[in-house]
């Protein structure tokens, strides 16, 4: 399987754009960007991109929880 299989899709919604930015932030913290991660052998790219996805998901959950909390503080539903 070629590394292109691991490409990160372009995102359109604000949440998707934030997820992509968080994944790229993670990759940069590991010394990679989208293109260098795709160029890695599969046995290196897969765990790196999996970790990037988990990182982005956890950060998105944190953002959503904070937003929910702020709405509760302001009496919004």
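-> sequence recovered:
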């Amino acid at each position: 399987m070629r590394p292109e299989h691991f490409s990160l899709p372009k995102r359109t919604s604000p949440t998707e754009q934030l997820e992509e930015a968080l994944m790229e932030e993670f990759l940069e913290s590991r010394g990679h960007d989208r293109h260098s991660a795709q160029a890695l052998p599969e046995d290196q790219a897969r765990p790196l991109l999996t970790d990037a996805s988990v990182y982005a998901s956890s950060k998105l959950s944190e953002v959503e929880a904070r937003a929910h909390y702020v709405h509760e503080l302001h009496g919004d539903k």
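The longest helix spans residues 42-73.
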